[in-house]
Design brief:
Number of strands: 11
Order of helices and strands: EEEEEEEEEEE
Structural class: mainly beta
Shape: elongated
Distance between the termini: 41 Å
Strand content: over 45%
Helix content: under 10%
Length: 121
Amino acid sequence: QVHLVESGGGLVQAGGSLRLSCAASGSSFSINDMAWYRQAPGKERDLVAVITSVGTTHYLDSVKGRFTISRDSAKNTVYLQMNSLKPEDTAVYYCNAEIRSSRTGRVFTHWGQGTQVTVSS
């Protein structure tokens, strides 16, 4: 069983910064892509950023130049550094990881529990 545990959300003023972390725990697995999604009340869940196993990254257009995704493979952890935050960034942020079972070889996705980010104007 694999679990993704998120931390780092909170309340900040516009222009401020937050750093989100998501750590994968468990055994008998490896991780391919890792990503961050966000969902505001009444809206669809959107992909914010993704990082592959070789370190290539992709970002939602509205966060380019402000957000940076990174990973620490030794710790099975992905980060999202968020700078110059805007009120429209307010949402619940979810970690997602593509997991491969070392026992069965099957690939599936896991989700974190979500962490609230609120940006005041």
